[in-house]
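Sample entry (212 residues):
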Amino acid sequence: MISSVVVSVGVGLLTVLFSAPAAYEVARGRAGRWLLTLSIFLYTLPSMSYVVPLYIWFSRVDLLNTWWALMLASPIFTATFAVWAMHGFYIDMPKAYEELADLFNIRGKMTRIIMPLSRPALLSVFLVSLIFAWHLLVYPLILASTPYNFSFPPVGAQTVTIYALTAIQQSIIRWGLLAAMALVAALPVMILALAFLYMVSKGGYSLGLKFL
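Predicted structure, serialized as C-alpha cells:
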C-alpha cells in the first residue's frame, strides 16, 4: 500500500510537471506541432514495447526494485496522454491574462498565472495519472521484485496489485482474499476521485484575477 501511494502520487506530479508546459507551448504555437503528434504516437504504442529498454536502462542505473523505476516508467503513457488532453484546454484559454502579465512585466508567468488558471485541467490530469499508476500491473511485475522494506534508502516497490495476485494460486483461488484486496484497491481511489471532482467543479478562469 505504501508503494502504491508513493508511486501513484509521484506519477501524478511528474505527469503534471512534464505535460503542462509542453501542452501550453504547443497550444500557443511556440513549439512544433510534431510534439503533439509524437505524444499521441507514444501513447498508442503497447506497454510491452517499452519493457525491454526500460528494464535495461533501470538495471544500468541501479533503479530496479525501487519507487523511482515505476515513477519514471509510467509517465511514458500518462504524460503523453496529458499533453494531448491539455492542448485543447490551453487552446481555449483566453489570452487576456497572458497579455496583462506581459503588460505589467510579471515574471514566472507559467507558475504564477497559467498553472493556477489551469487548476481544473491539472487536477483532472493528476487524478487520471494517479488512477493509472495505482492499477498498474505489468511494470510492477517486471521492475519490482520485493515489497517495501521500511528502510532508508527505500528498497522494494511491489504494489497492492502484486499482492492481490497472491489470492490466485495454481490449484485454488482464494475468493475472500481476492474480494478484500479488490475493495482495498478500489476504495482510496474512489474517495480521492470524489474529492477531486468537487475541486474541479469549483475551478475556472474567474480565479485568474487574483493571480494578477
